[in-house]
Predict the 3D structure of the following.
Amino acid sequence: MPEVKSEASEILRGHAEHQFAEELAELEKQDKHQRPPSWRVSPRAVSTYLLGGKLPNGFEVTPKYIGSKRLMEIAIATLATDRALLLLGVPGTAKSWVSEHLAAAISGDSTLIVQGTAGTAEESIRYGWNYARLLAEGPSIAALVPSPVMRAMKDGKIARIEELTRIPSDVQDTLITILSEKTLPIPELNEEAQAIKGFNVIATANDRDKGVNDLSSALKRRFNTVVLPVPETMEEEVEIVRRRVESMGRALELPAEPPALEEVRRVVTIFRELRSGLTADGKSKLKTPSGSMSTAEAISVVNSGLSLAGHFGSGKLSAADVASGITGAVIKDPVQDLIVWKEYLETVVKEREGWKDIYRACRDIT
């Protein structure tokens, strides 16, 4: 008889509060520090959840963010006040990842999310209507459809707004009253929704994408901004890529061995050099491509390589498996970036000891 899998095991990517339910439950049990109203655990425990560590009973909490501890402490402390949090940074600096895990640890619910796009309307932030009931009964609480932000206000939870600067400026400003007065007027009913203690907002934004809408001064003042940098050291970035790739490989059930550390290091080296415009030894300046060459893209390249190795190769990640992913990540502009990439291959990769295989694989694809 075929093995019957539970519905949970079939989910491609579980929410943070489900993936790390054991860790959150253990933190809640061991936490002896003061908890702000409606918070599942204390700010100190949220920091341990994000950055990892060992609890008094020996339980090991895995790190979700590898980087500055102080930045995470500032972000967590902000959410314990009446100020909203804006996570700012170039693409691929784990803004959404941090936002999800903060909401999961604080509220036990990371799903109250508004995805910002050029087409995001006011209803996504305020509320909408069930038009069948509206026409049949007129405006009423029963006919009102609350937004994720409104639900977070009523339940004292964290609301997440992704890509805030992609949302049109007039829609962004819908947040001003919510963040300053902690109320959401419902003029059709002559009522208002008031926020319960524990409510706050985490927004993410980057200024590298085209088509962004700057925040108004009034809205900026209502956020405390934390800038998430790219990983500071090679070791930090290699560890981030390794951990995320192993985690995603298990979830996707890829039939390949976990990538060798040296292969991950080569991918990260290429990304860091092209991103900074300087070779790792600091001796040669390089032209930079138009793309961001982010850590998130490096993770994607290694993951795609594992899929190729598992399904069409030996099961062991090789230079040929990652070459197409790297080339695709670099060449966003088919004219300008192609010149940058070819020059980098000939002047850096070709001359580097032990890199002949990746040079040949990338040259053949290019």
Residues 234-365 form one domain. The chain has two domains: 11-227, 234-365.
